[in-house]
Each structure stands twice: as structure tokens, then as C-alpha cells.
Amino acid sequence: MTQSSSKTPDAPVYANSRFEQMPYDLVKEVTWAIVGIGILVFLLAAVFSTPDVPMLSVKQVAVQDPMVLVNTELGELSNTSEIAQYGPPYNHNNGSLQSIGGFAPQTWLGVTLPVNPAQDDVIQPLQRMAAVNPTVGPPLSQWQTASGKTQQAWIQAVQQQLPKATIHNGQLVLPHPGANLGPVPAMVNDYLALANSGLLEPAIDAHNGPMPETNRTLSLLLLQGNADHIYANKLDMTGLQWGITKETGNYPGAVWLWFYTLLYQIPPYSTASNGDLLVVLTVLLVTAIWIFLPFIPGLRSIPRGLRVYRYIWRDYYREQEGRR
Q1: Which residues are within 8 A (CB) of 313 and not within 5 positions of it... i.e. 6 or more apart?
Q2: Could you tell me what percent of the chain has a pLDDT over 90?
Q3: pLDDT digits 0-9 by tens, 267-319
Q4: How many Å apart are CA 93 and CA 282, to the nearest integer?
Q5: 7, 80, 164, 305: most buried by Cβ count inside 10 Å?
Q6: From CA 210, how far away is CA 213, in angstroms rounded?
Q7: How many angstroms separate the first and last alpha carbons of the chain?
Q8: pLDDT tens digits, residue range 148-196?
Q9: Per-residue pLDDT averaged across 65-76, rounded?
Q10: What are the φ/ψ torsions at residue 97 (nearest 5 degrees)?
Q11: Cis peptide before 89, with omega less than 30 degrees from 0?
């Protein structure tokens, strides 16, 4: 191949003949690379990987920790659960509302995913169960015809007995049953039966009809709170180790979340009540700086000042200096 005449006569020619040539077995190299990396991956996975834990289900909670599910149901019925008090986008409360002064982006779109925990997670699933089990209907009717004050009194009376209550054959047994408890014990036992059958989540998510629901927001929010926290503590998955991304099932963790998890471990993010908002704003700011770095005076000149590029291309610059 002839060199283009447009190039200057004294321009250096970088031909392969300038360098020592030797045979190269690409197939052998690729094979050894795959084998070596594969062995390394298996060794690191054996030492550092997290357990392959299936996704937490309501049936699992009902079987292993039924009292947790009982407390969850009573919290939903009394509208005192974490989701009931959360705030936007689920309701108009402010239990988890975060802001910086008057800056509260959580409220900008309002309630976009309205959730009524008592109705969505307890009453409606039991109503669907009543269609096939008529004994579920009377307690529900008694509950729905009572005043809100009476309902709260029933729930509080049951909660007072829970420390000494037991679970026998999947049913709640209270130490002092009585009329002052209303239909709540019966509703709790029906709820436990539905959960133990594995049909509670489909009953919660079937609010649009009998077809399988792909949007499982409501059933997932049921365990958001005490149940999730208890099981996360058991599995050391509470996020106290920055840079460690946990996974459940056969799905890898979101490794790109390492920066978020890092921030949660250092002040002021780890101590502020609006830590989530601070973390999100920090990540957005850092991301914006990286995106617009070529347009920011001063910052865009850092590579030129560090002169790392001269080290990377040191052979070229050495040759240019020699020629000069």
C-alpha cells in the first residue's frame, strides 16, 4: 500500500515491520481467558455471594411467623400501618414525607397510587373468600356496620391480648375471648386461613377481576413494614453494608445502587430524617456534573492539568521530543 501524498514527507511511518512479530494462537488465548475467569467467578461467588433466598410471600409469613401477619392485619384495619401513614403517592398522610424547607418533590404529583390498606389488603380479600365460604360473611357484615370508634375499640381489645395469645392449628387463640372483641378474632382467623392457602396475594391483587394481575403493588405493600424488616434482619439484608447489593431468587442485585448505599452510611445522610431526599438530590447533582463536565469551565481543564494523557501516550511524546 502506498502512502498518501497529502502527508508531509517527514511524517513518521508506524508500520508493523518496526516491531518484532511472533505467532499468536487466539483460540488458545480465549479458551484460557474463559477458563480462568470462570474459576475466579466461582471462587469469589463461593466466598462472597449472598444466599439464594426466594421472594418473601404472605404464606411464608403465615406459616413461620403467624403473629407477625396478625399484627400486620390489625395495623391495616386500624389504619396505623406504615403504608397507611406513608403519604404520597399512596395517601394524603405525612408519615414518610420528606422535604428540605419548603422543597418537597414527593408532593408534586400528589396521590398517584391510591391505597386504602384496610379495604385493599383485608376487607376485599375476605369478601372474595366469603363467595366460596359463607361463614366469612357474618363477621364482615358486623364489622362494616359498626362505627369507626367501635372498630378501633375492638382492635385495641384484641391487641391487648396478643402478648399472651397463641397460634394453634393456624388459628389465633386469645386468652380471654369475649363479646368486647367483636368480629375481629373471626376475621383474623379467616385471614390466616386465606394466607395459609397461598391465595391471599391473588385475592388482594384481583381488584380488577379474576384474571391474573401483573401489577402486584397492593400485595407487595402488605408486607412493607414490620414483616419485611424482621425477615431482612434475619438475612442480614437491611442495607447496613455499603456497596453490598443483596438479591433474592435467581436475579442479580442492582450493582449500580452501590453509590446510593454508600451515602446512607455517612452523615448527614445516615442521621437526617430526610435522608432519602438528600441521597437522591446528591446523586442527581453528581450525575449532572459528570454529564456536563465538558461544558463547565475549570472542571473541564482538570485532565489537562493532571497531564495523565502524556503518561498514556508517553512513547509518542518521547518520539516527538526526540525529533525536535
Answers
A1: none
A2: 58
A3: 999 899 999 999 999 999 999 999 999 899 988 898 888 888 888 888 888 88
A4: 26
A5: 80
A6: 8
A7: 28
A8: 999 999 999 999 999 999 999 999 999 999 889 999 999 999 999 999 9
A9: 95
A10: -75, 130
A11: yes
Considering the entire predicted model, what is its pTM? Answer: 0.76
Residue 235: HSE in the Cβ half-sphere, 13 Å Cα cutoff: 21
CB 155, CB 185: distance < 8 Å? no
Strand 171-173 to strand 166-168: parallel, antiparallel, or no bridges (unpaired)? antiparallel
CA angle 52/53/58 to nearest 5° reads: 160
Q: What is the DSSP letter of 103?
A: B
Q: Name the residue ranges covered by the structural domains of the chain.
A: 58-229
C-alpha cell at 251: 436475579
Q: How many alpha carbons fall within 13 Å on the CB side of residue 214?
A: 0
Cell of 232: 431482612
| Rounded distance between C-alpha atoms, residue 69 and residue 266, angstroms | 34
pLDDT, tens only, 11-53: 555 566 666 677 778 899 999 999 999 999 999 888 877 667 7
**Helices assigned H by DSSP within the chain:** 26-48, 58-64, 66-77, 117, 124-130, 137-145, 148-161, 184-196, 200-205, 217-222, 226-234, 258-263, 275-291, 302-306, 308-312, 314-323
Half-sphere exposure of 23 (CA within 13 A, CB side): 3
How many beta carbons lie within 10 A of that of residue 2, not counting itself? Answer: 4
